From TrEMBL:
The chain crosses the membrane at residues 15-31, 77-105, 117-135, 142-160, 172-197, 217-236, 272-294, 306-325, 331-348, 360-381. GO terms for biological process: lipopolysaccharide biosynthetic process; response to iron(III) ion. Keywords: Cell membrane, Glycosyltransferase, Membrane, Transferase, Transmembrane, Transmembrane helix. Its main location: membrane. Pfam families: PMT_2. Residues 67-205 form the Glycosyltransferase RgtA/B/C/D-like domain. The keyword Cell membrane applies. GO terms for cellular component: plasma membrane. It is found in: Cell membrane. This is Glycosyltransferase family 39 protein. It comes from the Bacteria.
Length: 425
């Protein structure tokens, strides 16, 4: 049976990919406690849900926790109920969401282009600093990324490979799940803007969205359904309660943490070019391929290829959306990264054959290895306060604790990865 599964080069590459993904993302599962600042609060909220049997209003001790919608904490609580082990349960939603994101990227790249495009896109995403670092943490962002990518996957299955109404509905429904995860799940719908423009201009590969069909207009209902499943009982309880804490919770989570936080943020203020720096540093090593793929992108756009136009246009709109707000964090644009890798996929096989690209990737891997070795040596032999300084520095420079990867391919062979382990993995 195993021999049959590994019979072809394609099957061997596929099994190797999932084995490496599980090792990279799942190493250490169940071996650590939640780390500050956000992991302990989410884990304790989930633990309190299980113990109190009160899931509608997340509680942190005696206080209502209104910073984020409850879906991520619900999933942690479900995992804790099923497994009974908090060390495993608090990390499991992020791990499963990241594995799901990788599957969506592989499949979307394969369906839009070819199998090798999906494979290269998934390898690129797996070893991109920002994705790997966040996937190994119990944060909301990996789950949000999964919902956004699932939403875009469904929308593009309908728009570029359809019409397929069921995937159209899945796309809108997943966006709704993204809303009750972190409030900004609707950013997936931004991909419909370049799709509509490409359709209006008659670009190759985009299908009519079928706005004249009544069934198409049911899609917003799919968006509102998961939101209503949470919002309706929550608002009904608030409306029938005289507790001022519940009313403050509703105002906080529906207004202060969404519209007010975007329009008038009270922290994380950054300059307009902040995300340019994030992309240049935290989207490594995938972004290093751009100098070798941009000519392919240019030729595809000149040939009016709607697939690339929709992917790059959607990524650009997500970055622009968060750039317009004064409050910025590197994780805000993380949902755009998997779609960026899908756009890279078709041109990566030739890019990694270029000597310049190989030298650059090797240099990055060598640099990361030296930094990790130096940090380890300073922990063992250095000043006693170095660990505290390292923790402080790592919070400001997350990419230095992730992975670096370079690809090598042979004639007709599948992508192979050569990575340096990230610090602490």
């Amino acid at each position: 049976m195993i021999a049959a599964m590994l019979k072809t080069a394609e099957s061997r590459e596929r099994w190797l990919f999932w084995l490496v993904a599980l090792v990279v993302l799942g190493a250490g599962l169940g071996l650590r406690d939640p780390w500050p600042a956000d992991e302990p609060r989410f884990a304790l909220v989930a633990k309190q849900m299980v113990e109190s049997h009160q899931w509608l209003f997340p509680m942190r001790g005696s206080e209502l926790y209104a910073d984020k919608p409850p879906l991520f904490m619900w999933l942690q609580a479900i995992a804790l109920t099923l497994l009974g082990n908090l060390r495993v349960a608090f990390l499991l939603p992020s791990l499963l969401a990241s594995i799901g994101t990788l599957w969506l990227v592989r499949d979307l790249g394969t369906r839009l282009y070819e199998r090798s495009a999906g494979a290269y896109a998934a390898w690129a995403l797996l070893f991109t600093f920002a994705f790997t670092f966040q996937a190994r943490r119990a944060q909301i962002d990996p789950l949000l990324v999964f919902w956004v990518v699932l939403s875009v996957y469904g929308l593009l299955r309908h728009v570029l490979r359809g019409p397929v109404l069921r995937w159209w509905y899945v796309g809108w429904f997943a966006a709704g799940l993204g809303v009750i995860t972190k409030g900004v799940g609707v950013i997936a719908l931004l991909f419909l803007v370049p799709a509509a423009i490409a359709q209006a201009r008659g670009w190759i590969g985009v299908n009519a969205m079928g706005w004249r069909r009544p069934a198409t207009w049911l899609a917003p209902v799919a968006l509102l359904l998961p939101i209503a499943l949470w919002l309706a009982p929550m608002l009904w309880t608030v409306a029938h309660s005289s507790d001022p804490a519940l009313h403050a919770y509703a105002d906080n989570i529906l207004l202060r943490q969404t519209a007010r936080r975007y329009a008038d943020p009270w922290h994380h203020r950054q300059p307009a070019w902040y995300f340019v720096v994030v992309i240049a540093t935290q989207w490594l090593p995938a972004v290093l391929a751009v100098p070798w793929v941009w000519r392919g992108w240019r030729d595809a756009l000149r040939q009016r290829d709607a697939r690339l136009a929709v992917l790059l246009g959607g990524v650009a709109l997500i970055v622009l959306f968060f750039t317009l707000s004064a409050g910025k964090r590197e994780v805000y644009i993380l949902p755009a990264l998997p779609l960026f890798c899908v756009a890279l996929g078709p041109w990566l096989p030739r890019a990694v054959e270029r000597p310049g690209a190989r030298r650059l990737a090797f240099g990055l891997a060598a640099l990361m290895t030296l930094l990790a070795t130096a940090a380890g040596a300073m922990v063992v032999f250095g000043h006693p306060s170095f660990e505290a300084q390292l923790d402080e520095a790592s919070s400001r420079a997350a990419p230095t604790r992730s992975a670096a990867c370079c690809w090598r391919s042979q004639r007709g062979a599948s992508p192979r990865c050569c990575c340096s382990a990230r610090g602490g993995a």
